[in-house]
C-alpha cells in the first residue's frame, strides 16, 4: 500500500500547481497575505513575482488592490464559510489603466483546519466589457438612424400623397381622377402602417393597439363624414412578429378602403368592425360591415383583391367571404393545418 505524501509535500505540490496555472490565481492566508500567486497573475498585472509572495494583497502594486468592497468580501470569506461568486470590480492600475475584473473567492477545506486558506481566481473581462459597450453604442446609433430614416419616409409619403391629390384636382378625366384617389388612399395607408410600426421597440407588435391606431389614421384620412361612417376595433392581447403584422395591416387597409368606397353609397350610414383573436400560433382576423352587401355582378377581381390574396398566401391564411344581409364579413384564418393555396377572394368592386 502506497503511503500518502506528508502534509508539507502535498501543500508544496498544490502551490506548484497554482503557480503554473494559466488562470490568474492567488492563495491567501487568514490575514489576507499572499502565500502563492500564479505566474499568470504576476504577468497579467505586471507585478514582480519576487515581490508578491508574503505581501498583503492590498499592498500589491501601487495599492490598486486596496478596494474597500473587495477587502470586506475577503475578510468575510476568511471568517466564515461564505464565498465570493463573480464579484465585478474596477482595478485602476497606473501601468494597465482601468481593468474590469471578475473575482471569485473560495475558502479551502483541507487537512490543516487550523490555518485558513483562500483561493482567489481572477478573470480580466475588460475586452469583453469594451466590446459590449461598443455593441450598445452601435445599437443606439442604429436606433437613432432608423428614427431619422422613418421620419424622412413619413415626410416623403406625405409629399407624394399631396402631389397625387394635386394631380387629381387638375385632370379632366373622371376615370383617371378615380385612379389617382385610389393611389392617394394607398399611400396614406402605407404612411399609417409605417407610423405605427415605427413605435415598436422590438420585433413584436401588440395587435390591439396597432390595429386601433391604424384604423384611427385610416378613418381620419378616408372618411369624410364621421357621423355617417365609423370604424371599430376589438382584439385580445395578441402579439405577432413585425412581418406578419405588416401583412395584416395591409389587408385591413385594403378591405377598409373597399368597404368605405362601395358598401355605403348615397350617404348610407354604418360601421366597419375589425376583430382580431389568437390562440397560440393560430389567429383569426375579421372585417365586417353593415353596408349594402355583395353585388350580384362583381366583375373581374381588381388590384385590391390581388393584393389581399397575395398577402393571405404569404400568411398561410384561409380567406372567407360571407354576405350577412345587411353587410359583408371577410375573414382570414391562420392555423397550422390550413394552407392558403386556392383561396379566391372577390371584393365588391375591382379596386
Automatic annotation (TrEMBL):
Histidine kinase domain: residues covered: 148-332
SMART domains, per database record: HATPase_c
Chemical reaction(s) catalysed: ATP + protein L-histidine = ADP + protein N-phospho-L-histidine
Major enzyme class: transferase
Keyword annotations: ATP-binding, Kinase, Nucleotide-binding, Phosphoprotein, Transferase
Alphabetized PANTHER family for the sequence: ETHYLENE RESPONSE SENSOR PROTEIN (PTHR41523:SF8), TWO-COMPONENT SYSTEM SENSOR PROTEIN (PTHR41523)
Gene3D superfamilies: Histidine kinase-like ATPase, C-terminal domain, PAS domain
A Pfam cross-reference name: HATPase_c
Record-level Gene Ontology MF annotations: ATP binding; protein histidine kinase activity
Lineage summary: Bacteria, Pseudomonadati, Pseudomonadota, Alphaproteobacteria, Hyphomicrobiales
Protein name: histidine kinase
The EC number(s) this enzyme carries: 2.7.13.3
